[in-house]
Amino acid sequence: MLAIPKDFRWPSPWALIVDEASHLGLPGARASISRSAPLAKSLSAELQREVVAGHPLKGVTCVAIGFNKDDENEFLFATNHPDYPLAVVRLTWMVEKSPRWPRAQSLAMFADFERHVAEANASATSQ
Fold first, then answer.
1. Gap between the Cα atoms of 40 and 58, Å rounded
2. DSSP code of 22?
3. DSSP 11
4. With contact defined as beta carbons under 8 Å apart, do 77 and 64 qualify?
């Protein structure tokens, strides 16, 4: 599993996850109000709760390491999957029926993550 480089600076609007439980609060409240299935106790467990057979991260060890401050559903996971060492995942907060969801983008290294964020930021500012 990739470790966060010592000199890595999180590109805006991303940040390191310090308190994983805080990222489950609002989605958990929504699930309670809508009486949908309860959320998992961690982001990694939530990811596994959501994915179905055929999803590239099904059964893969994943650790949530970063979050998008502008999108409460988007997280960066480090994984033990050789094709998905890093994965940007947009959680849906529900058990999915299709392996297309939750959307996961594979990234080989932190430099790829920085490029991904730069492209997303450029796309957002051009709209």
1. 15
2. G
3. P
4. yes
What is the spatial distance between Cα 66 and Cα 103, in angstroms, rounded to a whole number? 16
- For residue 75 the two structure tokens come to 């997280």
- Contact (Cβ atoms closer than 8 angstroms) between residue 50 and residue 36: no
pLDDT tens digit sequence for 21-69: 776 655 555 555 555 554 556 889 899 999 999 999 999 999 999 999 9
pTM: 0.86
Both structure tokens of 44: 């990694």
Backbone dihedral region of 59: left (phi > 0), alpha (psi from -120 to 50 degrees) or beta? left
Least Cα distance to 23 among 81, 113, 91, 107 occurs for 91
